[in-house]
């Protein structure tokens, strides 16, 4: 015998059938995503996988995405450009409308995005993941033209900056000096410059073993410092010299013609190849829309990532101020999912879901030599700040642990394949 349907359920069903159509079905949400990197591509992919009723449009000027993660392995000779380049065809196949154009402006009041090509897009909710802008001129003598001789290789674009730096390393004579200028916090991918040092050393050890690396740093310490320096000593001997800010490591001026890096107290370092990573801010579109504060970054709600300066715009990835969370690819991806879920909930008059954010950041120090740092973050009790969950984080163990290092290098490769597979399908 079947159980009878409760009378209240029958009444509810009858009321639903009798209701006008707009009350029976939620209207489709127009979700526009600006930026097709780790934040934006993850947001578009998550929206289509989990909310197939949502109309998703992704705006990205590049026809393919070249990742910053694993770009350092290209410098070390462990990857080719095609291996870190990803097509947007998989997102199209999932039903995302992909427009290859530059978002030129946002009208938050009208909820419209203006594209450089003249098109205008209306949205119900906007996911803004525009990445960073390099602060040209923050280092005297270093502007966009100078990057053609002293590459930054920090905004991947079409990969040309990374390839330029690679060619310069190949052309440098054995016994030459590679100089790096590393900025103060905050900046994209805190361990990135030190993985770059490692991978350049990996290349030089094989091909130009008499060469040196001079790393001039505006800071007095860095992410995974002990682990990196253990690896440098074990793998590269005295090839690498790291100069912290309190020992005159802050580069304030460059002479592009002479290939000279000048520090705060007037020390001039002549180098053969220079990699200048300048100070950064949120991308121009976020600043010009009035979303950034005087730090150059965008304050956001800790649960929804809605910009504090404009309703309906959720700012993810490197452009926001994430509290103690680093500006990493993993954070961009995990917060993208929270932002999309929150955008949809808010559009439907619901509260954003409870939030927890995960970060795992792998770095390669040499061949089959990986290290990592992990952390879990969430909004505090009153939602005013994002904090690290006590005792949730940690770094790789130190010591002579070759099996551990090989395993973490494999984990790094698996992470990269997994996250890019999720993003681009």
Automatic annotation (TrEMBL):
Residue span(s) of domain Flavocytochrome c sulphide dehydrogenase flavin-binding: 353-424
Pfam families in the record: FCSD-flav_bind (PF09242), FCSD_central (PF21706), Pyr_redox_2 (PF07992)
Single GO molecular function: oxidoreductase activity
Keyword entries, A-Z: FAD, Flavoprotein, Signal
Domain Sulfide dehydrogenase [flavocytochrome c] flavoprotein chain central: 162-278
The keyword Transmembrane helix belongs to this UniProt entry's keyword annotation: no
Domain of life, per lineage: Bacteria
Domain FAD/NAD(P)-binding, first and last residues per copy: 30-142
Region forming the signal peptide: 1-25
UniProt-recorded name of the protein: NADPH-dependent 2,4-dienoyl-CoA reductase/sulfur reductase-like enzyme
